[in-house]
Amino acid sequence: MKKALQFLLLLIASLYHIDSYAQIQKIEHKDRIGDSIEIIDIMPPQERIPLEPNFKGAWMLGGHIQTNGFGIGLQWDIIQEKASYGNAYRNKFLDAYTIYYHLQEIKHAKEISTAQIRNNVFVSNEAYILGKKNRLYNNQLGFAYKKALGANIEESSIAIHWLLGAHVNLGLVKPYYLRLSGLGEVKYDEEIAYDFINPGLIEGKGNYFKGFNEIELHAGLGFKTSIFFNLARKHQRINAVMVYGGWDYFFKPIDFMVESKSKKSFYQIGVSLYFGKYY
Q1: Enclosing H/E stretch for 168
Q2: Residue 82, Cβ density class (10 Å: 0-12 exposed, 13-18 middle, ≥19 buried)
Q3: Residue 54 and residue 40: Cα distance in Å, rounded?
Q4: C-alpha dihedral sign at 220, 225, 229, 230
Q5: Kind plus residue range of the DSSP H or E element containing 161
Q6: pLDDT in tens, 88-131
Q7: How far apart are CA 140 and CA 171, in angstroms?
Q8: Of 62, 83, 145, 257, which has the most beta carbons under 10 Å away?
Q9: CB-based contact 94:148 (threshold 8 Å)
Q10: DSSP state of 176
Q11: Which DSSP helix (H) or strand (E) runs through 5?
Q12: DSSP 8-state secondary structure symbol assigned to residue 257
């Protein structure tokens, strides 16, 4: 019995020793496998898309139509320089300071363009504006900050910007001439106020170029904000649509229409089309 017990203890000790050795060997085997495995990335490293560091600015020319008139515009962008280029600067690359010049003819809300008919007999197909006193051509010279909301790095993408700017106004107020029966080409005067709004006495509008030597200057201030969409397929090009709103103020009131109050301020919403290039 004693020998049997000794044999059993010896067997248990032997099994314990074998199990312990097997575990150590297993762990060492895993370590050797781990040491022998080298992770190899077969994919090439992703290339950072460099932005054009030589772009310094942009120019664009276009036309616009708005709720109170139409005109043309010229813009020049000065791109803000960045310390480095790459993915991190995609949405900031086209941040810029913008200098803009807009020339527009501002119209009054009560203007009515018509053809002359007298005594139910068509006598002229020349349109004129009934009761108009003056034309207003406004020159805007301004400065804006242009914030990129999304840059067109890929050729198929669309660049979106937000602009906020202020400008000075230089209004050119030119007399509006009509051809009145028995008087010829005349501009508005209080003595002929009734004639200026009587279709029966109006034969047509006067020569467009008449009155440029009588222009009056009206100074003022204004501001403009807009969303700018560059739809060009190549990011060097600019084929853009701009939706904007603005306000213009003149220090002296401007007479537009007979029997209408003079105005100093004007609000407008408009759409512009621009074409240009980054350089």
Answers
A1: strand 159-175
A2: middle
A3: 37
A4: positive
A5: strand 159-175
A6: 444 455 688 999 999 999 998 888 776 544 545 444 556 788 88
A7: 9
A8: 257
A9: yes
A10: P
A11: helix 2-36
A12: B
3-class DSSP state for residue 148?
Answer: strand
Please answer whether residues 254 and 263 qualify as being in contact, where contact means their C-beta atoms are separated by less than 8 angstroms. yes
Question: Tokens 């960045």 appear where?
Answer: 82
C-alpha to C-alpha distance for 100 and 78, rounded to whole angstroms: 11
Q: Express each pLDDT in 51-81 by its tens digit.
A: 444 678 899 999 999 999 999 999 999 987 6
The kind and range of the H/E element at 14 are: helix 2-36
What single DSSP character describes residue 10?
A: H
Strands, sheet with 178-180, edge to edge from the N-terminal-most edge strand: 184-186, 178-180, 202-205
Place of tokens 């060097």: 236
Quick count: other Cβ atoms within 10 Å of Cβ 249? 14
Question: Which two tokens mark 198?
Answer: 């009587």
| Cα separation, 77 vs 95, whole angstroms | 9
79 three-state secondary structure: strand
pLDDT at 158 over 60: yes
Encoding tokens for residue 113?
Answer: 């363009």
Q: Mapping DSSP to helix (H, G, I), strand (E, B) and coil, where does residue 55 land?
A: coil
